[in-house]
Amino acid sequence: MKLNIFIITILSVFQINLASAQRSDQRAGRAEIESQKIAFITSELDLTPQESQNFWPLYNAYQSELQKLRQSEKSAKLKKADNTLSEEELIAAIKQEFVKERQKIDLDEKYFELYKTALPVEKVVSFYKAEQDFKRELLKVLKERRDQGRMRSN
Questions:
Q1: 3-state SS assignment for residue 33
Q2: d(CA 121, CA 63)
Q3: pLDDT tens sequence across 9-31
Q4: Are 51 and 119 within 8 A, CB to CB?
Q5: Is pTM beyond 0.85 here?
Q6: DSSP structure class, residue 84
Q7: 47 three-class SS
């Protein structure tokens, strides 16, 4: 009996450590992507030292607020995943999605105005274009990796 409890305890600790390691790997991967994104944007915008000093704190604040918004979206989506919701609850969930989308638009507009205080409008436009270009390139790389993984497993 003691052996069974010992084995269960060991397996539980192993599972917790494995889950923690996976989260740590995911965080490291996200941090690496964010570093690459910042480097990409910096090279695309050709920021002066003063522009960098003014822009990057705003960008970081935007990312922080965006992360908070996404966290609240995740919790709302988890609640909607339940197929036992009534019609009224489904309607409320859809309306909550509209609220979240408005919040994202409001956040984008707020930071657009702030970015214009740190950079010339042309560079703000270039910033948005650079973000889109980076996302496009990242998706392309991820697709290529996925395709290579499929080819190796076949």
A1: helix
A2: 20
A3: 555 555 555 455 556 677 788 89
A4: yes
A5: no
A6: T
A7: coil
